[in-house]
Amino acid sequence: MEIENFLQNKIDDSTILDYRISFKFNTNIDVFVLLTDKNNTIYSDFKSQFKSQFSQERIDISIVTLSDRKMDDFYHYLFSQDRNPDKVDAKLKRRLDNLIDYENL
């Protein structure tokens, strides 16, 4: 998926910490992006990259920072992926490690 590739590249270059993509029944896409702070151009980058989908109101992007109350939703998403530590995949482990590192600053 093009959106996931875009966001994964942003993780790889440390622009964002994490993301979540969810699909609605009416083919709309919700995207949650986790940042360390709000001083980031991810919203405008994302909007310009997916201009046609935005114009059709098919994508909704929410920016979440570590200080936001929405963090609980993000933690719930991450930890609900798999509660068995033996089965946690490398990608999820990296996400959790990143969150722990940034919260301990």
Structure explained in plain terms:
With 105 residues, this protein is α+β, with helices and mostly antiparallel strands. It has one domain (2-103): 2-Layer Sandwich (GMP Synthetase, Chain A, domain 3). The protein has 5 helices and 3 strands, in the order αββααβαα. Strand 1 and strand 2 (29-35) form a beta hairpin.
List the helices and strands and how they pair.
Layout: H1 2-12, E1 18-23, E2 29-35, H2 42-49, H3 51-55, E3 59-65, H4 71-80, H5 90-103
Parallel strand pairs: 2-3
Antiparallel strand pairs: 1-2
What is the CA-CA span between the terminal residues?
33 Å
Instruction: Find the CATH topology.
Output: GMP Synthetase, Chain A, domain 3
The domain tally reads: 1
The value of Rg in angstroms is: 14 Å
Globally, the shape reads globular
> What's the helix count?
5
User: Helical percent range?
Assistant: 40-55%
How would a crystallographer describe the biggest sheet? 3 strands, mixed
What's the helix-strand series?
HEEHHEHH
Strand arrangement, major sheet = 1-2-3
Instruction: Return the average pLDDT rounded to an integer.
Output: 71
What's the CATH architecture?
Answer: 2-Layer Sandwich
Decide which structural class fits the backbone.
Answer: alpha+beta
Quaternary structure state of the chains depicted: single chain
Strand tally = 3
Q: pLDDT below 50 for ≥5 consecutive residues: which ranges?
A: 82-87
DSSP strand content: 15-25%
The CATH C-level name is Alpha Beta
